[in-house]
Design goal:
Elements lengths: L2 E6 L1 H4 L6 H12 L4 E7 L3 H14 L2 E5 L10 H9 L3 E3 L1 H13 L13 E3 L3 E3 L8 E6 L2 E6 L3 H20 L4 E10 L3 H7 L12 E8 L2 E10 L2 H19 L3 E4 L4 H11 L4 E6 L4 H7 L8 E7 L2 H7 L13 H15 L3 E9 L9 E9 L4 E9 L2 H20 L18
Parallel strand pairs: 1-2, 1-3, 3-8, 13-14, 13-15
Antiparallel strand pairs: 4-5, 6-7, 7-8, 9-11, 9-12, 10-11, 15-16, 16-17
């Protein structure tokens, strides 16, 4: 089945808004074995929109249109869809009543302009939007079935996953029993993991298991898309392949499916009724921020200390002596983690100290990361050198800190070589 996507809006065409909606649509379709053949971005111009709809209707079997369903004068999707389909417009009484009820629940009058969002092409199938005022709709234009979706990302995501993808799968004739299994890892590059997992798809000879990757530094998402006659068939196919992926990737798997690294860390601490203090250099408090917004974090995360200099950290955590004048070392990180844990009276402390290169940001700009995890009976540390620019060091330090804490809590080795670090033969 040939699928196209049309993204609308002057703000998208001009680059004022980065078009993340298209990448989300394409990835989600790919996860279920559907692929996008063409993407078109069109501004809020009636003639351009009409031409794009008519041309796509000649080429494609299905078209997803994103944007243009709002209440303002530049939201043109319903009007142009009706013209392209050769039909008129009519008020959808059901959606109008839904909108009025939404505004009533919020104790707000509904602006007259919102009525426009309930006016759809005659004969169109209304597609529900449970979290917004812009309903979607589907209509045939040429030989293609068009699916119109709102531009607000969270509304698009829910509509796509719950309603549009099932409709596309039905039209494509593909097996509708599909499961996406995801493994999140840190420390291994995409090509490395591809080689490590060579042949896992062949464990299911009928070709119903597809291996894929999505790299978003510093993490890598490894995906298994599995199809079957029903969910029991899907799970039976998935189980041995997933087990083999876990065996091959080992300690580098930090979470699965909807789990996150910070969520795993928080869960590990909560299970042992633990508490945590975090000390950060250069990372702007982002380690504490990733933990602190999670449910239950208020019972675990006791204190976060952020500074740019080791001397400032020493003062903040109650160390009266001056820090060594030498470069940051794992030993200094251990001293900091131990003092932070003692001062905050927590069961655990994580210290992530970063010594940056001098000069302007550049491709070979790097940083030396020394981190330590301390408890009342144990302290362990790690040193790493990351090169690739300030952002590369920034995000790498955050991820390495959280991942080393995860490893410590799970009884795994904190020191394990990763693909992103540079060896300089220092301890």
């Amino acid at each position: 089945m040939r699928i196209e996507v049309i993204c609308t809006g002057d703000e998208v065409l001009s680059g004022k808004i980065i078009n993340t909606n298209f990448s989300y649509i394409s990835q989600k379709l790919g996860d279920v074995g559907l692929s996008v053949q063409r993407e078109t971005t069109v501004g809020d111009d009636r003639e351009d929109l009409l031409e794009s709809f008519l041309l796509a209707g000649q080429r494609a079997d299905a078209v997803i249109v994103n944007g243009g369903l709002g209440p303002t004068v530049d939201d043109l999707s319903q009007e142009i869809a009706a013209k392209a389909a050769g039909v008129g417009l009519e008020l959808h009484e059901g959606w109008m009543a839904r909108m009025e009820e939404m505004f009533r629940r919020r104790s707000r009058p509904m602006p007259p302009t919102n009525r426009k969002q309930a006016i759809l092409p005659v004969g169109a199938e209304m597609i529900d939007n449970p979290i917004g005022t812009a309903c979607g709709f589907a209509i045939d234009i040429g030989k293609a079935r068009f699916f119109f979706t709102p531009g607000v990302p969270r509304e698009l995501y829910r509509m796509l996953e719950e309603q549009i993808i099932p409709r596309l799968l039905t039209r494509s004739g593909k097996q509708t029993a599909i499961l996406l299994k995801r493994f999140h890892s840190y420390g291994l590059g995409e090509s490395h993991v591809d080689m490590m997992l060579n042949g896992v798809e062949d464990m299911v000879p009928d070709g119903s298991v597809k291996l894929g990757f999505r790299a978003h530094y510093p993490q890598l998402e490894t995906k298994l898309t599995v199809r079957g006659a029903d969910m029991n068939d899907v799970r039976a196919k998935l189980e041995p392949v997933a087990r083999e992926v876990r065996r091959r990737l080992g300690n580098f798997i930090l979470a699965e499916d909807d789990e996150t690294l910070e969520g795993v860390v928080l869960s590990q601490l909560a299970q042992r009724q633990g508490s945590l203090a975090v000390v950060e250099m250069f990372t702007s408090g982002q380690i504490a921020a990733r933990l602190g917004c999670l449910p239950g974090a208020e019972k675990v995360l006791r204190r976060g200390t952020v500074a740019h200099q080791v001397s400032e950290i020493y003062g903040a955590i109650g160390l009266t002596e001056a820090p060594p004048a030498s470069q940051i070392t794992p030993a200094i990180a251990e001293v900091v983690a131990t003092a932070a844990r003692r001062q905050s009276r927590t069961t655990h402390a994580l210290a992530v100290l970063v010594d940056l290169d001098e000069g302007a940001d550049r491709f070979d700009f790097g940083g030396t990361i020394c981190l330590a995890v301390a408890t009342d009976t144990e302290v362990t540390s790690r040193r790493s050198r990351i090169v690739g620019g300030r952002d590369w060091v920034f995000f790498g330090a955050i991820e390495m800190g959280l991942d080393c804490l995860r490893r410590f809590l799970q009884g795994l080795p904190v020191r394990e070589r990763i693909d992103f670090e540079k060896t300089d033969n220092k301890p």
